[in-house]
Design a protein that fits this description.
Length: 244
């Protein structure tokens, strides 16, 4: 598959997953002035702090732990989703660490790549490469944020693992015929590739009757601290999940 065809498929599948995941090729992303961008090749500390401050204004009642958690998850959701969609739907992988992301008011939506180059290989090879790229990118995010706030690696690792396993649950929903053993093996490969503990797999449950994979996260997104919001169904604080 040519690079052009690969990215056409990637962008099409991305929008089918959610319209917020809108991709494009832009050879000169720094010239796009419609929205601030986050890119590993330039300083983004100011742009990320601005996102944090927007969340603070939008949800003043939620408090600093929510603003920090939300800022981090907004930065990371698109790279993880794109990696999964590229590998499982398009059988390839762009350079995830080089993704350019657009910061919308109080949200991160829209991504770009600077070229149509991508990697082919087995699922395991692509997952290994994705884990390496995601770690590069997330280390960069943490370094940029550390310029204006304290953000612990342990905190981000939990959110990272929850993001990976949450995407695996979504994959199982899109392809319900995938067997339990395959799904758990994929979970193991992803956690290994990302340098995350395999103990996170303990948060996954597979129902043999319904053939459904479910996750109880290790981290709470704290959205319940926002006015009118409740605990998420996969939250560890939810009463239904207190057994874990």
């Amino acid at each position: 598959m040519s690079g052009q065809s690969f990215f056409e498929h990637l962008f099409e599948h991305s929008k089918q997953v959610t319209p917020y995941l809108s991709g494009s090729i832009n050879h000169q992303p720094n010239e796009n002035t419609d929205h601030p961008i986050v890119h590993i090749d330039s300083s983004s500390a100011e742009q990320i702090q601005s996102l944090y401050e927007q969340l603070k204004l939008l949800h003043p009642e939620a408090g600093a732990p929510y603003w920090l958690t939300r800022t981090w998850t907004l930065l990371c959701w698109q790279p993880i989703y794109v990696a999964f969609i590229a590998i499982y739907s398009c059988r390839g992988l762009p350079n995830i660490s080089a993704m350019v992301q657009s910061i919308q008011p109080g949200f991160v939506s829209g991504y770009q790549f600077e070229s149509t180059t991508y990697q082919q290989g087995s699922e395991q090879e692509l997952i290994t490469k994705a884990g390496h790229d995601l770690n590069l990118l997330f280390d960069y995010f943490r370094s940029e944020m550390s310029q204006w706030t304290r953000i612990r690696p342990g905190f981000t690792r939990h959110l990272f693992a929850d993001g990976i396993l949450g995407c695996l649950v979504k994959l199982s929903q899109y392809a319900p015929a995938l067997p339990k053993d395959y799904l758990f093996e994929q979970a193991r490969l992803w956690l290994q590739a990302c340098g995350l503990s395999e103990k996170f797999m303990d948060r996954l449950t597979y129902d043999e009757t319904t053939k459904q994979l479910t996750l109880v996260r290790t981290s709470c997104c704290l959205v319940y601290k926002c006015q009118g919001r409740k605990l998420c169904g996969d939250c560890p604080r939810h009463p239904n999940n207190k057994h874990l």
